[in-house]
């Protein structure tokens, strides 16, 4: 940085201010541009016939009738695609892992209901769907095991013969001597926790448009993805196209929550077909397809036990995690992403010496699981926080007190967890205290007890967690994944008009990164926010990029923005120094104006830029520098984000409906770039987490059919059902990341399921009921209450 | 999720509409609000060859009160039903039910009569028509019919309507000011199809229940009246014992289905809980009926 520190302090900073999102005027006024808004002339529309079988051999496909329908241009199945495209292989260095290849359409065998089998291309989607009904597919049903426990058993029918097993992932984390600890532990609690399958339900369905430029022999794919760089790289291999003739653009994207964060068969399909047919090919999934063929989430059973001493100090934890990963390993994250992180994050933010976590990932005939906001941690936090509360109850200890005793404290950082994750430093204890302060925890307990005395079913739940955000190149985002997600580049330039353009490899899809990155850049450069144009979501912007996921963009792109902006600013000031005939050290910039501290002279960015680029000879040849920089930031490790959530619920003792009456989040995301956006992320995340806790569940019946393939059956939370959420930002000690930022986009979904589960369990505790399955629906509460009534016939259990 | 091809016809009159339905040979569908029909067409669960749009037929959008009856025309939107002061005053149980009908955008288009004709076993309007001894007024090319609501619902999404029959109005009892009423519904989310709902009316004569009516929905293949529970209450003092007896009678009568959202046992439990609440609420609202 140039300039004296005091001068910097005087400058009004944008970072830290509640700046309104610059995206919103565009998105809210209908001026956004999503993939489905793009329909080039001559575009063909794809409709996909999907498998209605969970596991079957394809004996034959008849498309004659479909092809005869006016408006139908072509019908493709896997045989027609041979030689047009190579499969994507979700590789991993993980021992014992089997990568299942990904082809655009099912080749010979279908492995889940919803798997793409036949593509119809027509002049309109209507005609294409008419033709789908005329495609005849002859299946020979094959045996299958729809439940992970059955699929993992010896002798289970195999989904992928060449894997030789349905258990394609097995891993163990261990530290200390956990079995010895359990032999002598005074207090042991345990449970079999089940986080059911979810799906992301972004408002915009997945949409893809591929166009082949015959003259350039180049392909452009517009994709509703949050990883355009990764898609470009993998498709380059599949299609054998160099990166300068393959471009993947993510225009405005209407949410992902992880569901748009993997390679999809339909992306491969439209790309291959556009090249073959030399016409634009477009696929827009409908909600039915979104619910049955977008990557799904969680679906784990966690059998876990926690050992404590008589003072409530954690001694040991052991767990067996079984993840139902669906029919295929997903690219690039693999099916290990979700269940392995459950095992690695299970010890949570607690001091714990002895741990053993075993995890298996099991193939079943269901849609593949993939990233979903929170990845692994919503499940691990649910299980661990339930165990903590069960232990507190057994010890007669307050749930806040047991957490206070066991959360890692400031002097212990950096703390290496029993599974090997390093918490750099984060406000674990402070967040717990802040959440309880904000809610007036003692008063809340009194209110609960008074309500309980009056026969009402009221409960309070706490959940503390930590997550790893802003992960650098030292750590794979997914286990053993051979691609680098740990760096981010910002290419910043001041052009000849003095305007600033900053290009990134991230792909904002609702996070407001156009706003927050502009705040960072404007502060660093000393210009106005409106002078900065942030570009993202386009593989052509930078040599290499990946996208936005894993709570990385504020940390990595923010860091890269800072580095590049500093270089550009130094160049700008050197030019200005020459033009103004003062030393560069005597200059400072703010609001797009460069001033000399010692005199009245000043120049605007525009004047300096014009002099640099257009003013021949105004800057000597050997001193002239382009006002550009392209710096890369790698935080190497990651930084811990942490929070405590507090929920209060009331259960109707007749209907068993659960109402969330109070909700507080105290979180540490380091230095906050924009509190307005952080609050929005917390609120949205908590809403999604409440959905996971109370409403959302993808259900496959015993025949392998998805019975939740509409929004009447897959229930997402709605605005009117949301509580007021109190948010406390705790900025204890800033992390070592550039700018002091931590990632924070996923915390809501991590904390909320556990907090709600604990609150519901607390409300039901007079009946001796523990919550072990989410969502905890009225029907599940009914069954638990009925079972409790059988155990204790005398007890009054309802209205 | 695009509908199969169909023809569209804008009907100018009731006669035009029913003749067009007849000409479609059983393959026509009436569209008013389209809030149930269009999703089913987009899922291709129904593929009518002809859609007869009745939205431009005059004189079908009225709400009229006559004697002790209220008539709701075929084009009356849920939003209008919910906001109508006559309904709020004279059919308060219907007014209360409207709070549970879907969401604003659906209520803006969906119609009372359309919901009754759709005959979803977990929708409010069919149950209210049944509770209030409704009558369905229809038209066909051969003339009209008046179908009692109790004969109208044949099963899930099935009614006694002929393929060329158009419902023009549904009428039902208004409630005297001293009649007690209750409406209780439980859904996973507000505005969803109910897991169960119960609606009741009861008069109070000499401190005892007179002519109680109890209707339930969401616990069978169609909305149902509960004659056993009604009989258990008629003439009772509406004390806890009487209400418990009615609830037990109701639970013994119904045979709910299990589905994704609720087991049969939970639904039975829930219907009883809601019935108890609805009956207690109705009794607190009932005023002593003065001798005529």
TrEMBL record, chain A:
Keyword annotations from UniProtKB, A to Z: Molybdenum, Oxidoreductase
Any single Pfam family the record assigns to this protein: MoCoBD_2
Xref: InterPro entries = Ald_Oxase/Xan_DH_a/b, Ald_Oxase/Xan_DH_a/b_sf, Ald_Oxase/xanthine_DH-like, AldOxase/xan_DH_MoCoBD1, AldOxase/xan_DH_MoCoBD2, AldOxase/xan_DH_Mopterin-bd_sf
The residue range of the signal peptide is none
The UniProt record lists the Aldehyde oxidase/xanthine dehydrogenase a/b hammerhead domain at: 29-143
PANTHER family on file: ALDEHYDE OXIDASE 1-RELATED, XANTHINE DEHYDROGENASE
The protein here is known as Xanthine dehydrogenase family protein
UniProtKB/TrEMBL annotation, chain B:
Please give the SMART domains that the UniProt record associates with this protein: CO_deh_flav_C
**Key words of the record:** FAD, Flavoprotein, Oxidoreductase
FAD-binding PCMH-type domain: residues covered: 1-177
Domain of life according to the entry? Bacteria
Alphabetized Pfam families for the sequence: CO_deh_flav_C, FAD_binding_5
Classification via InterPro entries: CO_DH_flav_C, CO_DH_flav_C_dom_sf, Diverse_Substr_Oxidored, FAD-bd_PCMH, FAD-bd_PCMH-like_sf, FAD-bd_PCMH_sub1, FAD-bd_PCMH_sub2, Mopterin_DH_FAD-bd
Asked whether the UniProt record includes tRNA-binding among its keywords, one would answer no
Q: What is this protein called?
A: Xanthine dehydrogenase family protein subunit M
Give the organism, scientific name.
Plastoroseomonas hellenica
């Amino acid at each position: 940085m140039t300039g004296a520190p005091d001068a910097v302090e005087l400058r009004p900073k944008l970072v830290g201010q509640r700046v309104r999102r610059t995206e919103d005027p565009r998105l809210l006024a209908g001026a956004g541009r999503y993939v489905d808004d793009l329909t080039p002339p001559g575009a063909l529309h794809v409709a996909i016939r999907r498998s209605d079988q969970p596991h079957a051999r394809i004996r034959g496909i008849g498309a004659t009738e479909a092809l005869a329908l006016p408006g139908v241009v072509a019908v493709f199945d896997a045989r027609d695609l041979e030689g047009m495209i190579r499969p994507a292989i979700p590789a991993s260095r993980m021992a014992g892992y089997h990568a299942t290849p990904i082809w655009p359409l099912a080749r010979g065998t279908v492995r889940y209901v919803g798997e793409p089998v036949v593509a119809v291309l027509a002049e309109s989607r209507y005609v294409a769907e008419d033709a789908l009904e005329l495609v005849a597919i002859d299946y020979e049903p094959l045996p299958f095991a729809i439940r992970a426990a059955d699929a993992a058993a010896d002798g289970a029918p195999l989904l992928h013969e060449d894997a030789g097993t349905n258990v394609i992932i097995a891993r163990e984390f261990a530290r200390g001597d956990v079995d010895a600890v359990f032999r002598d532990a005074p207090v042991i609690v345990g449970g079999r926790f089940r986080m059911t399958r979810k799906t992301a339900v972004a408002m915009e369905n997945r949409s893809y448009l591929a166009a082949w430029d015959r003259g350039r022999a180049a392909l452009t794919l517009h994709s509703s993805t949050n990883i355009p760089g990764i898609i470009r790289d993998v498709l380059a291999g599949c299609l054998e196209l160099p990166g300068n003739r393959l471009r993947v653009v993510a225009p405005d994207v209407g949410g992902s929550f992880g569901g748009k964060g993997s390679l999809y068969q339909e992306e491969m399909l439209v790309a291959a077909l556009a090249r073959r047919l030399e016409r634009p090919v477009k696929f827009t999934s409908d909600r039915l397809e979104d619910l049955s063929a977008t990557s799904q989430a969680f679906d784990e059973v966690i059998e876990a036990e926690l050992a404590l001493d008589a003072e409530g100090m954690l001694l040991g934890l052991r767990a067996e995690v079984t993840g139902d990963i669906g029919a295929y390993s997903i690219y690039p994250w693999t099916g290990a992403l979700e269940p392995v992180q459950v095992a690695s994050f299970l010890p949570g933010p607690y001091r714990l010496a002895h741990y053993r976590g075993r995890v298996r990932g099991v193939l079943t005939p269901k849609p593949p699981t993939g990233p979903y906001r929170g990845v692994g941690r919503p499940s691990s936090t649910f299980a661990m926080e339930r165990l903590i509360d069960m232990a507190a109850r057994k010890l007669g200890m307050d749930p806040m007190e047991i957490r206070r005793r066991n959360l890692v404290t400031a002097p212990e950082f950096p703390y290496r967890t029993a599974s090997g994750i390093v918490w750099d430093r984060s406000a674990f204890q402070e967040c717990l205290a802040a959440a309880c302060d904000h809610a007036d925890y003692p008063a809340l307990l009194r209110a609960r007890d008074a309500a309980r005395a009056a026969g009402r079913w009221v409960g309070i739940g706490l959940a503390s967690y930590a997550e790893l955000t802003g992960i650098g190149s030292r750590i794979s985002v997914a286990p053993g994944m051979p691609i680098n997600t740990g760096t981010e580049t910002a290419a910043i330039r001041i052009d000849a008009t003095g305007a600033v353009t900053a290009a990134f490899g991230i792909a904002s899809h609702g996070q407001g990164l156009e706003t927050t990155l502009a705040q960072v850049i404007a502060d660093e450069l000393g210009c106005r926010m409106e002078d900065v144009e942030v570009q993202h979501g386009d593989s052509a912007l930078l040599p290499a990029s990946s996208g936005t996921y894993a709570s990385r963009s504020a940390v990595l792109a923010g860091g890269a923005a800072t580095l590049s902006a500093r270089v550009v600013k130094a160049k700008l000031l050197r030019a200005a120094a020459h033009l103004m005939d003062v030393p560069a050290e005597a200059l400072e910039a703010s609001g797009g104006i460069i001033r000399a501290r010692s005199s009245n002279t000043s120049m605007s960015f525009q004047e300096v830029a014009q002099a640099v680029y257009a003013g021949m000879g105004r800057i000597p040849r050997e001193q002239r520098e382009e006002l550009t920089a392209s710096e890369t930031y790698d935080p190497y490790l990651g930084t811990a984000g942490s929070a405590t959530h507090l929920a209060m619920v009331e259960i109707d003792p007749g209907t068993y409906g659960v109402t969330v009456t109070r909700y507080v989040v105290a979180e540490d995301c380091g230095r906050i770039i924009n509190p307005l956006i952080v609050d929005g992320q917390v609120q949205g995340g908590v809403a999604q987490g409440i959905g996971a806790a109370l409403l959302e569940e993808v259900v496959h019946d015993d025949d392998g059919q998805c019975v939740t393939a509409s929004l009447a059956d897959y229930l997402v939370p709605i605005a009117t059902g949301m509580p007021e959420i109190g948010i406390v930002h705790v900025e204890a000690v800033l992390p070592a990341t550039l700018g002091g930022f931590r990632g924070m986009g996923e915390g809501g979904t991590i904390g909320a399921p556990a907090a709600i589960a604990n609150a519901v369990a607390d409300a039901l505790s007079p009946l001796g009921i523990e919550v072990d399955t989410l969502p905890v629906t009225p029907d599940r509460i009914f069954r638990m209450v009925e079972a409790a009534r059988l155990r204790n016939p005398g007890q009054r259990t309802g209205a | 999720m695009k509908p199969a091809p169909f023809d569209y016809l804008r009907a100018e009159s009731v006669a035009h509409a029913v003749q067009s339905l007849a000409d479609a040979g059983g393959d026509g569908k009436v569209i008013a609000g389209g809030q149930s029909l269009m999703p089913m067409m987009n899922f291709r669960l129904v593929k009518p060859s002809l859609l007869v749009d009745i939205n431009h037929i005059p004189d079908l959008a009225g709400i009229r009160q006559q004697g002790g009856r209220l008539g709701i025309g075929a084009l009356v939107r849920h939003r209008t039903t919910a906001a109508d002061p006559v309904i709020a005053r004279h059919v308060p149980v219907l007014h209360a039910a409207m709070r549970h009908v879907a969401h604003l955008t659906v209520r803006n288009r969906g119609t009372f009569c359309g919901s009754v004709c759709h005959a979803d076993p977990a929708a409010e309007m069919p149950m209210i028509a049944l509770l209030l001894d409704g009558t369905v007024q229809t038209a066909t090319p051969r003339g009209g019919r008046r179908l009692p609501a109790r004969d109208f619902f044949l099963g899930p999404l099935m009614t006694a309507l002929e393929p060329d029959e158009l419902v023009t109005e549904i009428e039902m009892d208004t409630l005297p000011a001293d009649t007690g009423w209750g409406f209780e519904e439980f859904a996973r989310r507000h505005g969803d199809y109910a897991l169960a709902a119960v609606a009741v009316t009861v008069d109070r004569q000499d401190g005892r229940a007179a002519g109680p009516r109890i209707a339930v929905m969401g616990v069978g293949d169609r909305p149902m009246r509960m004659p056993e529970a009604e009989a258990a209450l008629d003439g009772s003092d509406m004390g806890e014992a009487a209400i418990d007896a009615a609830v037990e009678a109701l639970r013994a009568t119904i045979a709910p289905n299990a589905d994704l959202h609720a087991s049969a046992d939970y639904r039975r439990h829930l219907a009883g809980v809601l019935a108890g609440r609805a009956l207690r609420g109705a009794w607190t609202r009932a005023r002593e009926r003065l001798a005529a």
